[in-house]
Design a protein that fits this description.
4-stranded antiparallel β-sheet; alpha/beta; 4 domains; about 50% helix
């Protein structure tokens, strides 16, 4: 009964305002005392004396209770009461704690006079106090964790904490550690950056030295060795080395009358604009033979690209991705040794666009399926040279001397797409025959040209200008190759036709219909007259190839009515119109005059017409001023 009475009296007394001055006149001061007391207890290294510790705590609680007189803000009072509750619980946990230690201590009521003195301080001072308490607590957590880096501050938080470092030694140490961590991190990344830049500079310098110093020296050594050495065991690795380093070096100059390259096989060989002028090639092969058997992969006995193993049928084909664009072979000898020591060369399927073969001597060499776009063979000697299936678009053969075997091979390619053929060769090269037309249809050049037009058509919207242009390209491709010229006409509106046209005439008629509508309707009315005339000219050309000169003249008449100046300005159209006039039984004098103007004044050089219109050209050759 006595203990309970004493406890109640203590709680009652605690609730009364204190007239004494507290050691902690603000919440910030109370928290500093709170943290200092915790630190003093945690720093004890000897066996704890609970009696002394209890005295310290009771003294702090008595002073902390008085702090309530200075606090009238509800949040601050809750924080101060939390500190009192913490130490009240601490007292109750000590051994032999008396009954009064189990009674909660209440914060003294606010004293208006003393709280007003605290309110006179700026509002920012309270915010600073709160920040100080928060940062001090974080600093102590960092120290209690064993100074783990995860607790350290970064960025603007360090600047904020630095303002209070003089008010708390633990916080000052915490700020200093945070600054050191930031500096160490910055130094680390600075070091990494310097190392990376140094390594990059060394690598770049090494690369430049390798490319502009070492590679040119090695190139000269290898080319000299190639010109001096003979035999595949020495030349093959040299040529492969030059191939591998070509992207980093300018075009090679391997010209020289004494250089002879023989007995080498170089699949996938790639050189850009090399100069092989005056070099002799003997038994040089670019493609690789691949064997395919119907039932198994056993070795076969080869004969004429086919092989047989008992009853098993095998097919051998050549794979070739060698490219030598803009290569120079002027005055070069290909298997043309008069002593009979040279052998065949195989350039079949090679990419030889813009290559130069002027004055070259080429014998027993295959260019079958090769890409010879704009290649020049002027004044070359050709003996048993195979051009079967090669792309000869705009290749030049002026002054070429060729044997009958070469001419026979030329019949298996679109020779008329090249220029420079004399009349004597044209008469021999001109040919008919479905078998040869079928082979041309599968050739590299035709598949490339018709494939471009087909892809353009698939990417365009039906009825649009792009769609009509793709149809025009397709029709012209059929026309110049003389393949799939005509078929059944349209039974309905050509503009509404769908899918890929199966022949040139259908493609041209559909293009004429679309462009005709675009030229007579919409905002750009009348702006497609020239384009319409070009497509009508292609349509007339296709009809001429099919032998219907009357229908072709009708198309030319419609063209001339809508665009009177076109046939007089376009030299290729004027040339073909003259043939149609002459062959169609029209005014032959006017046809001869127009033909003469196209050839002599406009300087038109017919190419594909020499094959596609050969019958009309050769038949009237004596009458026309060719």
């Amino acid at each position: 009964m006595t203990d309970n009475t004493a406890a109640g009296q203590s709680a009652k007394t605690s609730a009364q305002p204190s007239s004494q001055q507290s050691s902690y006149g603000s919440l910030a001061a109370l928290r500093d005392g709170h943290l200092a007391l915790k630190q003093s207890i945690s720093d004890a290294t000897t066996r704890p004396d609970f009696t002394e510790m209890a005295k310290s705590v009771r003294a702090f609680v008595a002073e902390a209770q008085k702090t309530g007189a200075f606090l009238d803000d509800a949040k601050e009072r809750r924080a101060a009461q939390g500190i009192l509750d913490y130490w009240s619980a601490e007292l109750a946990s000590y051994p032999d704690a008396p009954a009064e230690d189990f009674v909660p201590v209440l914060l003294a009521p606010a004293d208006a006079a003393q709280a007003a003195r605290d309110d006179d301080e700026p509002a920012q001072s309270k915010e600073d106090q709160r920040a100080l308490i928060r940062l001090a607590a974080t600093a102590r957590q960092w120290r209690d964790s064993g100074e783990k880096s995860g607790y350290l501050l970064a960025g603007e938080t360090i600047k904020e904490a630095a303002r209070f470092k003089d008010q708390d030694p633990a916080l000052a140490e915490f700020v200093a550690a945070s600054l050191d961590a930031v500096k160490a991190k910055r130094m680390f990344w600075t070091t990494i950056g310097v190392v990376v830049l140094a390594v990059a500079a060394v690598c770049w310098g090494t690369f430049l030295y390798w490319q502009f110093k070492l590679l040119p020296e090695w190139q000269n050594q290898y080319i000299s060795a190639l010109q001096e050495q003979s035999g595949p065991d020495k030349q093959t690795p040299i040529l492969k080395w030059l191939d591998a380093r070509q992207p980093w070096l300018p075009p090679y100059d391997i010209s020289g009358t004494s250089t002879r390259i023989a007995d080498v096989t170089l699949p996938g060989f790639k050189l850009y604009a090399p100069n092989f002028s005056g070099v002799e090639f003997s038994r040089v092969k670019f493609p690789v033979e691949e064997s395919y058997c119907l039932w198994d992969d056993r070795a076969c006995f080869f004969k004429n690209n086919y092989c047989f193993w008992n009853d098993t049928f095998c097919l051998t084909r050549h794979r070739n991705d060698a490219t030598l664009p803009a290569a120079t072979f002027n005055s070069t000898s290909f298997s043309f040794d008069e002593n009979g020591k040279s052998g065949d060369n195989d350039f079949s399927g090679a990419g030889l666009r813009l290559a130069q073969f002027r004055n070259a001597k080429i014998a027993f060499t295959s260019f079958a399926g090769a890409d010879l776009y704009r290649a020049v063979f002027d004044r070359a000697k050709l003996c048993d040279v195979d051009f079967s299936g090669a792309n000869l678009r705009l290749a030049s053969f002026w002054g070429v001397t060729s044997d009958e075997q070469t001419k026979e091979h030329l019949k298996d390619t679109a020779w008329w797409l090249a220029v420079g053929w004399p009349w004597s060769d044209i008469e021999k090269l001109a040919h008919d025959g479905k078998a040869r037309s079928d082979r041309l249809k599968q050739s590299l050049g035709f598949q490339h040209d018709i494939g471009d037009a087909t892809r353009s058509l698939s990417r365009s919207s039906p009825g649009s200008l792009d769609y009509a242009l793709a149809l025009s390209d397709m029709a012209f491709t059929y026309a110049i190759w003389g393949i799939d010229l005509t078929g059944p006409g349209y039974t309905s509106d050509p503009c509404a036709a769908q899918g890929v046209p199966e022949n040139g005439r259908r493609a041209a008629e559909q293009a004429v219909c679309i462009i005709g509508k675009l030229n007579t309707e919409g905002e750009k009315k009348g702006s497609y007259t020239d384009l319409l005339s070009n497509i009508r000219d292609t349509l007339a050309y296709l009809i001429m190839e099919s032998g219907d000169m009357a229908a072709a003249l009708k198309v030319f008449a419609e063209l001339g009515a809508d665009d009177p100046k076109f046939l007089d300005a376009a030299k290729d159209s004027s040339f073909r119109y003259a043939i149609a006039q002459y062959a169609g039984g029209g005014d032959k004098a006017a046809a001869i005059a127009r033909f003469k103007t196209a050839i002599e004044e406009m300087r038109y050089q017919p190419t594909h017409e020499l094959q596609t219109l050969r019958e009309y050209i050769l038949r009237s050759r004596n009458s026309l001023p060719c």
